[in-house]
Design a protein that fits this description.
Blueprint: E1 3-8, H1 14-28, E2 33-38, H2 39-45, H3 57-60, H4 64-84, E3 91-96, H5 102-114, E4 119-124, H6 128-138, H7 143-152, E5 166-169, H8 180-200, H9 222-242, E6 247-249, E7 257-259, H10 269-284, H11 294-306, H12 308-315
Parallel strand pairs: 1-3, 1-4, 2-3, 4-5
Antiparallel strand pairs: 6-7
Length: 316
């Protein structure tokens, strides 16, 4: 059951596209089991905002802690639905959310892969000016909040495996389109056709790898193994960096390396300690590989450090 993430600027038409996508998928594939994880519904379900007419996301996106809670709930709900529907081949899970942080898209990619499912991203490319105009009509966000969300939006990259396949669609602009409804209908038809071909009819299976296979019980001495391996890698990085080497290589592991030179910021004790904590959290979250030795754990940690989304988060 593939996972489809919507992403884009606020008020770029994500919910409109989601609703139309569901409608057209059900027309084309009546047997298709569709589940929606809605950012707005999750936000409104919070007891603190029940009964309020105004969209609670205005308050949530002004508060870092509340925003993190919302993202965590979206990720948790997506994982729960995917896990529950794991055996269903004719269906999709659609996450209707801003999904503006690529680290979140990477996390859901790992979740989907751990369950043997594909992930695709739909980028709503409606122009910023049009999004602001729609927001003004809806009265959803203040100028401060929408400007901040637009500024922080991390555009999906088709070269990144967690953003691929990537589909782009925009709400039609009535000022430039002679027939906006027909234009939107054609765009949606193309989108639905691609999703059916790439996700629902494709026989390509997602291969689970060591960093995404879920294993609930850790083997004895597992934490000690992780601690030893991460400390070993950190020491090798700092030593190689102090010698001015261009990259760090793990001893006796050909091809396992970490680039140190170029435009990359240097690693410090602080960023490496943060990376270690993130790696441990990653393993504890269920995306763990327990039946590995020290060398393999070292390689996993280096792979984690090499990940673009993780490294950007560390140096943010």
């Amino acid at each position: 059951m593939p996972l489809i993430l919507l992403c884009g600027y606020p008020c770029s038409g994500k919910t409109t596209i989601t609703e139309k996508l569901v409608e057209m998928l059900r027309e084309e594939k009546p047997e298709c089991d569709i589940e929606i994880v809605s950012e707005e519904e999750i936000a409104r379900a919070n007891q603190a905002y029940k009964g309020e007419e105004k969209d609670p996301r205005e308050v949530i996106f002004k508060n870092t802690a509340l925003e993190k809670q919302l993202r965590a709930q979206i990720k948790s709900d997506a994982e729960r639905v995917l896990s529950r529907k794991k055996g269903i081949s004719t269906g999709v899970v659609i996450v209707d959310s801003t999904n503006f942080i690529k680290a979140l898209r990477y996390d859901t990619f790992c979740i989907a892969k751990s369950l043997g499912q594909k992930q695709a991203v739909i980028h709503c490319t409606t122009p910023e000016s049009m999004c602001r105009e729609i927001n003004t009509k809806l009265g959803r966000y203040s100028e401060e909040v929408i400007s901040d969300l637009i500024y922080r939006f991390e555009c999906p990259n088709p070269d990144a495996r967690w953003d691929n396949p990537l589909y782009e669609i925009s709400l039609p602009d009535a000022n430039f389109s002679p027939d906006p409804e027909e234009e939107f209908k054609i765009s949606m038809k193309d989108l639905v056709s691609n999703i059916i071909t790439d996700l629902l009819q494709s026989k390509t299976k997602v291969k689970q790898n060591k960093t995404t296979v879920i294993t609930r019980a850790a083997a004895p001495g597992y934490i000690q193994l992780v601690e030893k391996a991460t400390n070993k890698v950190i020491n090798i990085i700092l030593e190689a960096q102090s010698k001015g080497e261009e990259k760090m290589c793990l001893p006796n592991q050909e091809g396992i390396s970490l680039q140190l030179a170029g435009n990359l910021q240097p690693w410090t004790q602080t960023t490496l300690a943060k990376a270690k904590r993130n790696f441990l959290a990653f393993l504890r979250s269920g995306q763990r590989a327990t039946k590995v030795g020290e060398d393999e754990m070292c390689a996993l940690f280096v792979g984690f450090l090499n990940n673009e989304a993780q490294r950007d988060a560390l140096f943010a």
